[in-house]
Amino acid sequence: ELSNRMAVRGVDIIKFLMKQGLMMKINDVIDTDTAELVADEFGMTVRRVSESDVEAGFLSDDIDEEATTPRAPVVAIMGHVDHGKTSLLDALRTTDVASGEAGGITQHIGAYQVRTPGGDAVTFLDTPGHAAFSAMRTRGANVTDIVILVVAADDGVMPQTIESIQHAKAAGAPIIVAINKVDKPDADPQKVINELLQYEIIGEALGGDTQIVEVSAKSKTNLDGLIEAILLQAEVMDLKADPERSAEGVVIEAKLDKGRGPVATVLVKRGTLRRGDIVVAGSAWGKVRALLNERNEQLTEAGPSVPVEILGLDEAPSPGEPLAVVESEARARELTEYRARTKREKATGGINQVSLVDMMAKLGSKKISELPVLIKSDVQGSGEAIQGSLEKMGNDEVRARVVYSGAGGITESDVQLAKSAGAPILGFNVRASKQAKDLADREGVEIRYYAIIYDLLDDMKGVLSGMLAPLQ
Ligand code: GDP
């Protein structure tokens, strides 16, 4: 509940609690003081409310179990390469009865919804394979309700089939097996069924609880049978969501479109997303300017299990990032700034980073009295000159120490050395290689570039004297 209301992942809250020595599970109850501590940590301001506010429904956001409105199942298609995942997704697209008059599914947005003749809907994630599926899961987004495991009838269980089974099981998503390519003369569905037994996938015919459907994506055989199996499984799962609350969703895909700016496909998990809503997704935020479905139709709103493209974000968020509606632009800015900051800190290894600003802080608080630096210069002569001048700087309290000085471009091994010495790199008339730059970004090693010796020395003088002058 706290995670939902703060639009912060539950695992991040649990991790923070663990650091405080509190071992908690996702549904455990924490007391008000702890909740306030958590809120603080994630950059939120807490407003304490009285019991009567709570009773008046002020905090009465219901969780999914209490929701009563059925929602469409969200289905992912997995399986071994070439077994027909893409073909099956294409074939299923054509089963949409709503496509007739509206012109059909015209654009790939990362997910699409088909409507059945009976009036039900099924949402398919349009990125086959488990790479996308696990990428989302590592971000904590469990959007998939049901996994369709595609196995080619002429090929049987293969390594990626097994991997897909493991992924589905880890995510707790029930599997429906689609034995594909049954149109082929050498198709042997029974062999597939037998092979699957080894992985505890037991068909209903053998007394198990897995639905196994034989299809052909190519000749579009028994696609309605597959949809029926999905609807049956969904019914068993009793999938519900509350469409009334403010929307929460997950980013499925995002890109920077030349004409339209950042575009993100969001799968709404609960609530209803509306045009004009202010949303936050990771470190991106914006006012939803337009909602578009896979038929390129403008929508005014999208409810649970509906995938929509949204326009109006300030940048493209990453897939798997949760999206939530917030009450104001100020709130959205506050949240995204906080997230951008923590992302930066994480990317640069937090407190271990090697930047001059950090060093100044440490020196200022007398944690270190030496400023280690690594110098790379175009010619050995200028490196020596810089080293000589730097070593004359400072006094008994603080001074610069050159851990290494060499000629040539900045390389990965320079970055590694700088990292282990806790030193920033000063580049004089040299640049860093792409690999070195990436490594420095990852390791949080600062690289400063100079073309004039005076500028370099002036900069270092500033750093040292900044430390000399007591901060308080
Ligand atoms: P993916 O790698 O799992 O996405 O597999 P594809 O959808 O790209 O299909 C791989 C190959 O199998 C393609 O050449 C398809 O035309 C073919 N294929 C897919 N489904 C069927 C089917 O039901 N019957 C037959 N005969 N071929 C199929």
Automatic annotation (TrEMBL):
Keywords for the protein's UniProt record, in alphabetical order: Cytoplasm, GTP-binding, Initiation factor, Nucleotide-binding, Protein biosynthesis
Taxonomy, superkingdom: Bacteria
GO terms for MF: GTP binding; GTPase activity; translation initiation factor activity
Protein location: Cytoplasm
Domain Tr-type G, chain residue ranges per copy: 70-240
Coiled coil, from the record: none
Gene Ontology, cellular component aspect: cytosol
Residues that, per the record, bind GTP: 79-86, 126-130, 180-183
Function in brief: One of the essential components for the initiation of protein synthesis. Protects formylmethionyl-tRNA from spontaneous hydrolysis and promotes its binding to the 30S ribosomal subunits. Also involved in the hydrolysis of GTP during the formation of the 70S ribosomal complex.
Family: Belongs to the TRAFAC class translation factor GTPase superfamily. Classic translation factor GTPase family. IF-2 subfamily.
Protein name as it appears in the record: Translation initiation factor IF-2
Native source species: Brevundimonas subvibrioides (strain ATCC 15264 / DSM 4735 / LMG 14903 / NBRC 16000 / CB 81) (Caulobacter subvibrioides)
Full-length numbering of the shown residues: 437 to 908 of 1008
